[in-house]
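Hi,

I'm pasting everything inline rather than attaching a file, because the server keeps stripping attachments. The sequence lines come first, and each chain or strand is labelled.
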Amino acid sequence: NAGVTQTPKFQVLKTGQSMTLQCAQDMNHNSMYWYRQDPGMGLRLIYYSASEGTTDKGEVPNGYNVSRLNKREFSLRLESAAPSQTSVYFCASTGTALGSLSLHFGNGTRLTVT
Amino acid sequence: SQQGEEDPQALSIQEGENATMNCSYKTSINNLQWYRQNSGRGLVHLILIRSNEREKHSGRLRVTLDTSKKSSSLLITASRAADTASYFCATDLSNYQLIWGAGTKLIIKP
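And the predicted assembly:
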């Protein structure tokens, strides 16, 4: 059982380039999330999808777009990368609202923007 | 908008000792969760404690919650080298959003 799978694991971009981070879960979870993690800070929510067909902004959505392709897949796109987007990106999923269940995380994508 | 704050930021102890880390938060909550993150990996859920609970155990983990002080503690007993990791608390902002602390980095010395 793979859980939450993120690709790629590492990526280096030049300022202005675009890329899509892929995430897939095989746990039949309804809700999916994209977070970024920066040194000395907690995780910050970029976007989330409460259920298939819906997406909502989190705390730090500027510079990002998302697509909930189907129940399994939730992608994060950087249209024009900036050095401030250098970070580790985590995808997570959960079966229902957070009040009753915990998050399942992928192993992250480490992105450097030069 | 960081709500949870862990204390200490870093903790280094000998194998076999107990490790205690604390989390403080600012607003009322429905539940509080603790996660572990090993170096280079994603976070793993450890335990969830609801606002009407005061203490919860899971194996060598003991979590307490004091809603009057808006604080929680995570105790790891009889620490092992494999417990070396960063530990994060998270509180619910809404049905789909958690607020995370910056974490406590725990090092277990052999």
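The CA atoms of residues 11 and 106 of chain B lie 5 Å apart.

If the labels don't parse on your end, tell me and I'll reformat.
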